[in-house]
Write a structure and sequence with these properties.
Elements (H helix, E strand, L loop, with lengths): L1 E4 L2 E4 L7 H13 L8 H13 L3 H11 L4 H16 L8
Antiparallel strand pairs: 1-2
Helix pairs in contact: 1-2, 2-3, 2-4
């Protein structure tokens, strides 16, 4: 799947993405790289999914990002990650 934002194509997380790919998506949303909108909730969600896929870097970035976010926003990001997992789009590492 691809989302079009400001004439740029922004990839969305898919079930076949590994931790590194999901981590890169988190970076895109946390910094606005590649034309992505800065969206800390989406960034936290991506880092969370990447961490579940084994990315140690994502764990560090998620923790740092959490310090800059309200509790409600963190809860929303965690809920979004759970919804992706529940829909079978992203699986956990064994």
């Amino acid at each position: 799947m691809i989302n079009q934002v400001e004439s740029q194509l922004i990839p969305l997380p898919t079930a076949d993405m590994g931790g590194d790919e999901l981590f890169k998506l988190g970076l895109m949303y946390s910094t606005g790289q590649g034309g992505a909108p800065i969206d800390l909730i989406s960034a936290h969600m991506m880092f969370n999914l990447a961490a579940m896929r084994g990315s140690v870097e994502a764990q560090v970035y998620r923790r740092e990002l959490s310090r800059e976010m309200d509790r409600e926003d963190i809860a929303e990001a965690q809920k979004a990650a759970r919804q992706w997992l529940d829909q079978g789009r992203i699986g956990c590492a064994a």
